[in-house]
């Protein structure tokens, strides 16, 4: 059960919202994600379907004193009086009796609700961890998955060398902020690092600079790498040899060496040239040939 203590909420957003804790300091209430099933976590004053955090403003100022008993009877996690209006004595007394945290702020009620709603969406979001590499490719959050040793980190390093950004390597923390909004981050202990076979642990920020890392990305595309079957591997190797021979013959005949390019194979290098245009296309229709498989990630 995910929940946020009101004291922690005040510590995290109190300064930004100029929240003054005026009564009910002994209260240790919490906001629970399950409360969203029946009512909003935070919103304008609603006595029919009480919010977990009730926000009142200038519109309700005239009737606040008369509705104090009904307001606290619903056991809100907290009450916020916004728009700089004076807090009625009836609310102060009710907050102390019920140990309900009562805050006051000069900011508009709509702004308070919007800021706290965003905070709660992240704090109470469903979370999971996935093995893979999360990259920023042309502004698109791309999660590279696959079995150990298939070349995920090598592909990530290749993309970094081409100017794209690293979010997380090995472990990716994914949060569902909304039904269609998945956000990926890196665990603090792994931040800025990528581990590549044969090279070891690399500090991407130190080697490639500040622009090579990202703190987070919205997940929009999942690319799953698979090791080719034995027969496919042999055919791919034969095709690469044939293409290389054809390229050299073309060059010997005076042709442009860049007009023919061998098909990429193996982990790393060649796949970076395939994932780049795939991210630029509509992710619902993209398909990376030879990568060997890309799927659009729900998000």
What's the layout of helices and strands?
Layout: E1 3-5, H1 6-13, E2 20-23, E3 30-32, E4 42-44, E5 53-56, H2 68-73, E6 78-81, H3 89-98, E7 102-104, H4 109-123, E8 126-137, E9 140-146, H5 152-161, E10 165-178, E11 181-185, E12 193-196, E13 200-203, H6 204-208, E14 216-225, H7 230-252, H8 269-280, E15 293-295
Parallel strand pairs: 4-5, 5-6, 6-7, 9-14
Antiparallel strand pairs: 1-3, 2-7, 8-9, 8-10, 10-11, 11-14, 12-13, 14-15
Helix pairs in contact: 5-8
Order of helices and strands: EHEEEEHEHEHEEHEEEEHEHHE
Distance between the termini: 23 Å
Helix fraction?
25-40%
The total of helices stands at 8
Q: What is the overall pLDDT average?
A: 80
CATH topology of the largest domain: Rossmann fold
Structural class, judged by helices and strands? alpha/beta
Shape category: elongated
Describe the fold and architecture.
The protein has helices at residues 6-13, 68-73, 89-98, 109-123, 152-161, 204-208, 230-252, 269-280, and strands at 3-5, 20-23, 30-32, 42-44, 53-56, 78-81, 102-104, 126-137, 140-146, 165-178, 181-185, 193-196, 200-203, 216-225, 293-295. A five-stranded mixed beta sheet has the order 2-7-6-5-4. The chain has a five-stranded mixed β-barrel with strand order 8-9-14-11-10. A two-stranded antiparallel sheet has the order 1-3. The protein is α/β, with parallel strands linked by helices and 299 residues long. It has eight helices and 15 strands. 30% of the residues lie in helices and 28% in strands.
